[in-house]
Records
---
Amino acid sequence: MGKKLEEKLSSIQKIFLLYITGSFRTTPTAALQTITGIMPLHPKAQQEAIFIKIACLRKEIEFEGLSYQPRDYEEKIKSLTIHPSLFNIYSIKIRR
């Protein structure tokens, strides 16, 4: 991620951090992130991109010298292949 994009994400995040904390606009962004416990956006964006590539796209990723294999992570459970409205509920006999 480029430096310019990191700065843009940081400036966007700072606006919301100021509203959350009620701090002065001169408070450093890093201090606001520490106070709120909110992670900076650029590492979070990298984390999400890596997760999507591994878990959803099932691609092998190398990040900071470490290799991540899709087979090391659980696959998403497939949803129903039949729509619930197509269930034949009228053929079920109810005993009384």
Note: The chain has a mean pLDDT of 85.
---
Amino acid sequence: MVKFSKKTAFIFFFVCATFSGISLYKIDWETIGVGTWIDTFNKIDGFIVFMILTIFFMLYYVKKIKEENK
């Protein structure tokens, strides 16, 4: 696994959270319920990817902080 420093993990966490918010803003919410589930997924897949990355880097950052405090 790739090892990041605490500062790098925080920067990745912040950038992914920012892009997650931007991609959530760009979703056309009026067309989400129309069509099949795959159409809905194709409209929100960018948000899902950035949200998963945000959670991953957040957990990694918290783990680094806990290791530093020990």
Note: The chain has a mean pLDDT of 89.
